[in-house]
Amino acid sequence: MNRPNIWSEQQEILFEDNHLLILNKPAGVLVQGDNTGDEPLSVKAAEYLRFKYKKPGAAFVGVAHRLDRPVSGVVALAKTSKALSRLNEMFRDNKVHKTYWALVGKCPEPTSGHLTHWLVKDPIRNVTKAYTERHGQGLKADLDYQVLGQAGNRFLVQVNPITGRPHQIRVQLATGLGTPIVGDVKYGFLNPLPDVSIALHARQLEFEHPVTKEAMCFRAPVPEMAHWDAARAFYPA
Question: Which SUPFAM superfamilies does the UniProt record give (predicted)?
Fold first, then answer.
């Protein structure tokens, strides 16, 4: 029996223990299933675990948070119901520190700051609109950002979302700063990227291990795509 063609452990699997499976999700892959019927990351992970541990039945994989399909980066999956319950609580209570990298076409002004909007999602069109004041059933969204520097002909922005709303970073950068993310035609960038991804990457997750209580920090390298090449210069020494 051949190993399923899911990931090479050296690249996509960042960490694994008895309770957690931390992955570097490729852009274009769903985290959880939707009406497209495409196989999501959660199912791929369950297949990997079933094969690795020679399980006769299905392996447990719990999804505590999601990344948009065209976004790459760190995803934390739970291998036990105890870990999933506690991870869900930590994400809900903003006890997980999230760091994203985004490439934008022009330098945001100011180059660092805090953005607050009220977001209203249109589920039919799958787009979110941001308002600077309270609006109907809009959900409050907060993030901090800073420009790390120029990366080729783009600018690399580090974003730390405080809340976790659908399309939050994408719509807040586009609306609040007038700097849509490279490739994100849904929110105002002019041209798509060749692989139809967007230049938004979940760079790092920091949280307390849900079972062992150890401080954990997981960092994912950016994709091996040309538009990310210049961003590698910003890796820590």
Answer: Pseudouridine synthase
